[in-house]
């Protein structure tokens, strides 16, 4: 009999060491009957972990937090956050643990983190647990985002615990093992800022600079340079969401990273029919986090980050506010440029095409898409067909044929490159019906639809025969899709 080796992993505890005020040493509850649902083998290898060892019993103990590698210090991280605009001074990981940091093949430090690993001192009324469905959902959507080239936390594994989780009904429980550039959030800075301990705030900012933006350390005002770097990363991140129709759903300041990675996939969804007011979260009644609001919300969140950092910008408060306002002023132009560059590429137009030509063309198109509620993903693939002389599929999305025809004429005159379009416009996104279908099957014990979906989404630009149903928009009349926040 061969005994599978225990995974060898060395975890640093730099966060816990440098920022003990934001870390509570803690242990996971462990799982009574762990069963591996999905393992990201390429990611495991990239982290220097042996997939076979992770899938073996000792590996599952690591992935559920039951076994802690020698020398590691798992911690629950403290942070604050504005949730739907209301400030919560003490949030923190209520059901998550940072196991520690490791170094990937590219030499980058990565957090290894568990979600659904049991109650922590931050759990308040929560049970500390997570259900199989939502953890698989985070796995599917985060890996789809990664394949689309969008900065995101990654998913290493989902392990069913064998423990029931009480929601509206009792659901099977799971732990997600997540990998991130770090778990520092806007809310981490709000927490340190609210403590009134400027030295803690400075230590946190220096930790963030060392980890994510080392070049900021050379700037005249390193903490302002940190803020500028986060702002630029978020301006570009949110533009990349908008370009694929991604709606995050809970852009609270505790769900916005300092690294510029997408984090915390809860009631998120990919928009199908184009609608700037698209909302998928059942608890977002006011549409605060609607598709079209996301750029503004990111700016609002960055203003909260600036507020927290003020004491580091300058000892003179007025000067600090002036500096913050001036930096914030860069957000809109940066976001607008990232969006317009992305749209130029989606439309197959040269990068050098004048904004004065590109911007009105894009804005007029958005009006047509909004009126038609055209499928945002299929539209661009059909548009590439139009660039090849086959205009009927794209015209099929519109009732206002005169409107789209005159737009198509303006666009064609710019000589769009159809092949370039197909390289940036995905065929496959995690469509809500396909995701729900795969999660329902997996929850009931059949993992085949999940495996198939993951394979489809891993190559989003590569159209393959036999996968038509993954590219199909939801049937008309299926009603607005709602994600419930019972994650
Ligand atoms: P989220 O909206 O998932 O980003 O979570 C917001 C906050 O609620 C975070 O502090 C979470 O740790 C906490 N939380 C969410 N679900 C649970 C749960 N089931 N048990 C304990 N804490 C939770
Ligand atoms: Mg969160």
Concise structural overview:
The chain is α+β, with helices and mostly antiparallel strands and 487 residues long. The protein has helices spanning 14-18, 41-46, 51-55, 57-64, 132-147, 186-194, 198-212, 222-244, 294-313, 317-328, 331-346, 355-372, 376-387, 392-395, 401-412, 418-424, 432-443, 448-458, 468-471, and strands at residues 23-25, 35-39, 75-77, 81-83, 86-88, 96-103, 109-115, 154-166, 170-180, 246-247, 269-270. Strand 4 (81-83) and strand 5 form a beta hairpin.
Task: Give structural notes.
With 487 residues, this protein is an alpha+beta fold. Among the domains are: 14-180, no CATH class; 186-339, no CATH class. Helices cover 44% and strands 12% of the residues. The chain is built from 19 helices and eleven strands. A five-stranded antiparallel β-sheet has the order 2-8-9-7-6, with helices on both faces. Helix 6 (186-194) packs parallel to helix 9, helix 8 runs parallel beside helix 10 and helix 12 (355-372) runs antiparallel to helix 15 (401-412). The longest helix is centred in the middle third of the chain and has 23 residues, at 222-244. The protein starts with 13 loop residues before the first helix and ends in a 16-residue tail after the last helix. The model has no long low-confidence stretch (mean pLDDT 96).
């Amino acid at each position: 009999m061969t005994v599978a080796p225990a995974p060898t992993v060395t975890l640093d505890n730099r966060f816990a060491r440098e920022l003990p005020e934001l870390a509570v040493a803690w242990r996971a509850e462990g799982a009574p009957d762990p069963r591996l649902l999905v393992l990201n083998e390429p990611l495991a290898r990239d982290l220097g972990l042996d997939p076979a060892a992770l899938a073996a019993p000792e590996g599952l103990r690591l992935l559920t937090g039951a076994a802690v590698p020698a020398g590691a210090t798992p911690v629950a991280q403290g942070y604050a956050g504005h949730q739907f605009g209301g400030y919560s001074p003490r949030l923190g990981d209520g059901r998550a643990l940072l196991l520690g940091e490791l170094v990937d093949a590219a030499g980058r430090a990565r957090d290894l983190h568990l979600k659904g690993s049991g109650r922590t001192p931050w759990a308040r009324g929560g049970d500390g647990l997570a259900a199989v469905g939502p953890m698989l959902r985070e796995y599917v959507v985060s890996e789809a985002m990664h394949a689309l080239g969008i900065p995101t936390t990654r998913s290493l594994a989902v392990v069913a615990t064998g423990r029931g989780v009480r929601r509206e009904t009792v659901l099977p429980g799971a732990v997600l093992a997540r990998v991130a550039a770090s778990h520092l959030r806007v809310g981490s800075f709000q927490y340190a800022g609210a403590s009134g301990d400027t030295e803690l705030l400075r230590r946190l900012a220096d930790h963030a600079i060392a980890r994510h933006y080392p070049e900021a350390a050379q700037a005249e005002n390193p903490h302002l340079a940190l803020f500028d770097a986060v702002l630029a990363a978020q301006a570009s991140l949110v533009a990349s969401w908008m370009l694929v129709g991604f709606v995050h759903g809970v852009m609270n300041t505790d769900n916005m990273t300092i690294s510029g990675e997408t984090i915390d996939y809860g009631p998120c969804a990919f928009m199908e029919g184009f609608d700037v007011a698209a909302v998928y979260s059942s608890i977002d009644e006011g549409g605060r986090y609607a598709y079209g609001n996301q750029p503004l919300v990111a700016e609002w969140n960055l203003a909260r980050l600036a507020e927290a950092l003020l004491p580091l910008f300058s000892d003179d408060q007025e000067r600090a506010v002036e500096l913050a306002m001036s930096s914030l002023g860069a957000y809109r132009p940066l976001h607008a440029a990232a969006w317009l560059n992305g749209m130029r590429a989606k439309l197959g137009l040269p990068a050098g095409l004048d904004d004065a030509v590109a911007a009105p063309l894009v804005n007029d198109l958005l009006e047509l898409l909004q009126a038609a509620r055209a499928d945002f993903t299929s539209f661009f693939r059909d548009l590439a067909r139009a660039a090849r002389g086959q205009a009927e599929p794209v015209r099929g999305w519109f009732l206002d044929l005169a409107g789209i025809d005159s737009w198509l004429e303006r666009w064609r005159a710019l000589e769009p490159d159809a092949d370039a379009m197909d390289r940036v416009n995905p065929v496959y996104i995690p469509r809500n019906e396909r995701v729900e279908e795969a999660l329902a099957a997996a929850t009931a014990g059949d993992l085949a639809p999940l495996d198939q979906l993951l394979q489809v989404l891993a190559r989003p630009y590569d159209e393959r025969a036999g996968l038509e149903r993954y590219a199909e928009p939801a049937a008309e009349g299926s009603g607005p899709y709602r994600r419930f926040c019972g994650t």
